[in-house]
Amino acid sequence: MICRSCQYSLFELATGPCPECGRPFDPADPSTFETRRRGQQALLGLGLAVVIGIVMITGFWFAQTPDYGFSRHAAFWTLFGSGLVVGSVTAILAAANRSWLGRVPLLLVGILSVWIGLFFGSDKFYRVWQSMPNPASEAFADTAPIGAFLLGWMPGMLVVGSVFGLSFLLLGWCRRRARSKSMLRSN
Questions:
Q1: What's the mean per-residue pLDDT of the chain?
Q2: DSSP 38-84
Q3: DSSP assignment of 104-134
């Protein structure tokens, strides 16, 4: 147990004010104290961002190597879908993290994964299309991958921001509901 205001350890203390700052707490009511220090939350978020970033890079590496045959849409959706999944997972983890120093790296990795997925997906789409027998002349207009490279952060921010916002609201609602239930039980 840690004081919400000053981060003082309340372990093995009875109900009452925090000895450091005077904020009231009750060991039976989880809404009056925290279980982890903010620094631990930040380190957890940063560590998760690094691990997810390594997994993302490895996943994109392996998704680039298979032969998609002439299925250019499968090539696009495999890479872009991977970016969407990683971006959504990091946004949910960022919403669950209570420290902004833990949230920001996770959100950045999420935006980056959607961005990279869109760029690699559109690049692979055009490469598969160009390898088809008698491709249309539009297959050699490589402006879509360049556009995804230059502006792909915009859909990344939109997707990750939306998932983060919805997750943040849902987790906040669940926490408030659990807090009100625990208060009802204690009364």
A1: 84
A2: HHHHHHHHHHHHHHHHHHHHHHHHHHHSS--TT-HHHHHHHHHHHHH
A3: HHHHHHHHHHHHHHHHHHHHHHHHHHHHSSS
The answer to the question of residue 2 being in a domain is no
Tokens representing residue 176 in the block: 């408030």
pLDDT tens profile 135-149: 888 888 878 788 889
Q: Which of the two residues, 144 and 154, has the higher pLDDT score?
A: 154
Q: Quote the number of domains for the chain.
A: 1
Non-local CB neighbours of 41 within 8 Å, separated by 6+ positions: 97, 98, 99, 101, 102
Let me know: does 109 contact 53? Beta carbons within 8 Å: yes
Q: Which residue has the tokens 């994964």?
A: 113
Give residue 186's pLDDT: 59
Can you give the residue range of the structural domain that contains 162? 41-186
pLDDT at 110 over 90: yes
Q: CA-CA distance, 9 to 4, in Å (whole number)?
A: 10
Q: Which two tokens stand for residue 111?
A: 């935006």
Look at residue 34 and tell me if it is in a domain.
no
Is residue 93 in some structural domain? yes
pTM of the entire predicted model:
0.73
Question: Residue 10 domain-assigned?
Answer: no
Q: What is the pLDDT of residue 187?
A: 58
